[in-house]
C-alpha cells in the first residue's frame, strides 16, 4: 500500500465502524471522518484502555518472574517435599494401580506398564551450542516415548544429569526433564533413582588452560527434594529407613485395579557414585529382606543405575533379548545383593543403565530356569557417549516392561521403543 504523505495523514483518520446486516453478520467497514472533538474523545478512551492492558500484562510478567526466581533460589528440603507429597496424596487416591484391559489375544488381563529412561545426561557443555541443542533433542525423544507408550509409571534410572559440566543450577536441568514428561502427558507419574554422574565433581578447562574444579553444589538430596515437590512424583514413597546407605532406596507397591491388594513390589536401590561410594551396602540387603518378610511373597522387580557384577550381567548370546555393544562396568562390590535377589525367588528382573552400549535382558547368571532376569535399559538421551552397532549409531530409546495378571497368573515381557517409533529387542522370559 502506498504511504500517505504527512499532510494527508494529518487530515484523515481511519477508524472502524460496524454495520449489522439482515442476517446478523458483522461486517467491518472503513469510515472516513474529519478530525474533531469526537475523534479526540475516542483517542483518549483507546489510550486509557491500552494503558490499562499494558499495566496488567507488566504486573503479571513481573509476578511470574518473581515466582520463577523464588522457585529456583529456594529448592524445598526433603522434609518439606515429603510434607507436600503427603498433602497432595491426601486429596486423591494417589495409588499406583494395574489397569484392566483386553490384550491382543482378546483376553481380559490386569496390566501395568513401566517405561525406563536411562542415561539422559542433561546439562552437558552448556557453554556451547551443541550442549543445549542436545538437551532439546532429548526432550523431544522423552515426549516421543511417552506419547507412543502411555506408560503407567516412568522410571528415571540414573544419570539424568552430567553434573561435572553443571556449576550451580542442576535443579534447572532436572526440571527440564520433568517438563518434557509433563508436556507429553500432564498426568504422568514417575519415580527417580540416581547414578554416578548426577552429583559428581564439577570441572571445566578454559581455552587459556585455567581449570575450575569443585564439589557439586547440588546434592542428591537437593535433586530428590525438587523431584518430590511435583504432583506426579512417586520418588521415595515407601522410603527405606535413614540407616540405609544412599538417597534413592525405596519400594513402590502397585495395587489392583479397584482394590487395595498389592500385586507388585517395585524396589529401587541407590548404587552410589558421584560423591558417595560406588557400591551396594549390606544395610540395603538387610532392608530388602526385612521388607520382603513383612508381607506374603508377591512378584517383585528392581531398579538401580549400576550393574551389580560383571559376571551376573554378562551377555549370554541367543538366550538374551537385545544386543551387547560393550562390556559391563559394575559397582565396586554389591555386598551380596544379587544373591539376595536370587534367593528371594519372587524378584523377576533387575534393570540398570550405566553402560550405554548394552541393551539386553538375559536370565541371571545364564540360568534359563532362574526366576530372575537382568536387563539394561536403552540409552534414552542424546547426552553422554554414544555407541554403534555394525558401524551404525544406535537409535535412542526407552526400555518398556509390561507386567500382566491373567486371573492369578503373573507374567512379564520387555521391549525397546525407539525415538523413531520402532519396537526392538523384545524379550520374553
Write up this protein.
The protein has 429 residues and is of the alpha/beta class. The N terminus is likely disordered. Strands 3, 4, 5, 6, 17, 18 and 19 form a 7-stranded mixed beta sheet that branches. Helix 4 links the parallel strand 4 and strand 5. The radius of gyration is 28 Å and the shape is globular. The chain contains 8 helices and 19 strands. Helices cover 28% and strands 25% of the residues. The chain has 2 domains: 63 residues, no CATH class; 351 residues, Metallo-dependent phosphatases (Purple Acid Phosphatase, chain A, domain 2, 4-Layer Sandwich).
Shape: globular
Q: What is the CATH superfamily label of the largest domain? A: Metallo-dependent phosphatases
CATH first level of the largest domain: which class? Alpha Beta
CATH topology of the largest domain: Purple Acid Phosphatase, chain A, domain 2
H and E string:
HEEHHEEHEHEEEHEEHEHEEEEEEEE
Rg computed from alpha carbons, rounded to a whole number of angstroms: 28 Å
Domains (count): 2
Amino acid at each position: 500500500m502506498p504511504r500517505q504523505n504527512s499532510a494527508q495523514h494529518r487530515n484523515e483518520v481511519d477508524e472502524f465502524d460496524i454495520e449489522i446486516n439482515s442476517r446478523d453478520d458483522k461486517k467491518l467497514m472503513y469510515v472516513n471522518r474529519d478530525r474533531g472533538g469526537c475523534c479526540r474523545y475516542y483517542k483518549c478512551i483507546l489510550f486509557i484502555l491500552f494503558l490499562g492492558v499494558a499495566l496488567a500484562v507488566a504486573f503479571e510478567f513481573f509476578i511470574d518472574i518473581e515466582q520463577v526466581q523464588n522457585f529456583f533460589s529456594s529448592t524445598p528440603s526433603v522434609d518439606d517435599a515429603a510434607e507436600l507429597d503427603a498433602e497432595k496424596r491426601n486429596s486423591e487416591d494417589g495409588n499406583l494401580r494395574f489397569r484392566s484391559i483386553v490384550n491382543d489375544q482378546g483376553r481380559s488381563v490386569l496390566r501395568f506398564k513401566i517405561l525406563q529412561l536411562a542415561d539422559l545426561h542433561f546439562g552437558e557443555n552448556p557453554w556451547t551450542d551443541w550442549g543445549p541443542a542436545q538437551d532439546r533433542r532429548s526432550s523431544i525423544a522423552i515426549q516421543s516415548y511417552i506419547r507412543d507408550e502411555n506408560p503407567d509409571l516412568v522410571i528415571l534410572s540414573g544419570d539424568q544429569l552430567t553434573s561435572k559440566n553443571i556449576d550451580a543450577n542442576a535443579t534447572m536441568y532436572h526440571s527440564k526433564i520433568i517438563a518434557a514428561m509433563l508436556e507429553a502427558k500432564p498426568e504422568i507419574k514417575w519415580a527417580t533413582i540416581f547414578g554416578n554422574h548426577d552429583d559428581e565433581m564439577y570441572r571445566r578447562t578454559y581455552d587459556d588452560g585455567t581449570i575450575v574444579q569443585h564439589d557439586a553444589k547440588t546434592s542428591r538430596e537437593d535433586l530428590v527434594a525438587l523431584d518430590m515437590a511435583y504432583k506426579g512424583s512417586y520418588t521415595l514413597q515407601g522410603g527405606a529407613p535413614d540407616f540405609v546407605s544412599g538417597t534413592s532406596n525405596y519400594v513402590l507397591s502397585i495395587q489392583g485395579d479397584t482394590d487395595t491388594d498389592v500385586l507388585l513390589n517395585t524396589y529401587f536401590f541407590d548404587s552410589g557414585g558421584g560423591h558417595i561410594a560406588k557400591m551396594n551396602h549390606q544395610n540395603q540387603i538387610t532392608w530388602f529382606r526385612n521388607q520382603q518378610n513383612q508381607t506374603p511373597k508377591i512378584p517383585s522387580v528392581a531398579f538401580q543405575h549400576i550393574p551389580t557384577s560383571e559376571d551376573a550381567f554378562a551377555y549370554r548370546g541367543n538366550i538374551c533379548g537385545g544386543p551387547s555393544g560393550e562390556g559391563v562396568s559394575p559397582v565396586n562390590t554389591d555386598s551380596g545383593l544379587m544373591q539376595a535377589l536370587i534367593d528371594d525367588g519372587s524378584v523377576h528382573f533387575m534393570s540398570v543403565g550405566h553402560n550405554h552400549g548394552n541393551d539386553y535382558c538375559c536370565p541371571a547368571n545364564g540360568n534359563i530356569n532362574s526366576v530372575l532376569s537382568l536387563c539394561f535399559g536403552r540409552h534414552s538421551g542424546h547426552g553422554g557417549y554414544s555407541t554403534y552397532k555394525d558401524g551404525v549409531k544406535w537409535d535412542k530409546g526407552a526400555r518398556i516392561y509390561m507386567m500382566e495378571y491373567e486371573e492369578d497368573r503373573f507374567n512379564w515381557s520387555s521391549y525397546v521403543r525407539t525415538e523413531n517409533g520402532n519396537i526392538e529387542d523384545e524379550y520374553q522370559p
